[in-house]
Amino acid sequence: MPKERGQKVIVSNRKARHDYSILDTYECGLVLVGTEVKSLREGKASLADAFATVDDGEVWLRNVHIPEYTQGTWTNHMPRRTRKLLLHRREIEKLIGKTKESGLSLVPLSMYFKDGKVKVEIALAQGKKAYDKRQALAKRDADRDIRKAMGRALKGRFTE
């Protein structure tokens, strides 16, 4: 059986980039059981309400929904169980300091296969206020309008 190469995204958390200002990102390994991996290979998972916490010097991923494997038996996993994230000790200590001192959150951005292993990209993030979200949407809309106008101008279709 050939070894997998490259990166295949399973699920991404698009809402996290809207709700949070991303300060720093980390790639983590994930402790899983066999039926969870099989379910992930089918592309089934949800990061909608997920978050990470640091407890007793370990990082835990909570509220990630990985549905039960359809061909699993009584050995199937619990869909929303707490899963351990694998990071280097210095990264964990850095995260402990940042989350304690400045009230930042750990938010999962995406889950993917990298060379056959499941990885999670978590972000050190700060929550956005409602007006920040509105500004970001207005900026995105303005950029889209500028790109549209530039495209028309390049094609020779000028509009008033």
UniProtKB/TrEMBL annotation:
Q: Which UniProt keywords apply?
A: Cytoplasm, RNA-binding
Q: Which family does it belong to?
A: Belongs to the SmpB family.
Q: Where in the cell is it found?
A: Cytoplasm
Report the SUPFAM superfamilies cross-referenced here: Small protein B (SmpB)
Q: Does the keyword Kinase apply?
A: no
Task: Name any GO cellular component annotation.
Answer: cytosol
> Pfam families per the record?
SmpB (PF01668)
Could you provide one GO biological process annotation from this protein's UniProt record? trans-translation
Report which superkingdom the organism of origin falls in.
Answer: Bacteria
Entry GO MF terms: RNA binding
Coding gene?
smpB
User: What name appears for this protein in its UniProt entry?
Assistant: SsrA-binding protein
What does the protein in this record do? Required for rescue of stalled ribosomes mediated by trans-translation. Binds to transfer-messenger RNA (tmRNA), required for stable association of tmRNA with ribosomes. tmRNA and SmpB together mimic tRNA shape, replacing the anticodon stem-loop with SmpB. tmRNA is encoded by the ssrA gene; the 2 termini fold to resemble tRNA(Ala) and it encodes a 'tag peptide', a short internal open reading frame. During trans-translation Ala-aminoacylated tmRNA acts like a tRNA, entering the A-site of stalled ribosomes, displacing the stalled mRNA.
- Cite the InterPro entries for this sequence: SmpB, SsrA-bd_prot, SsrA-bd_prot_CS
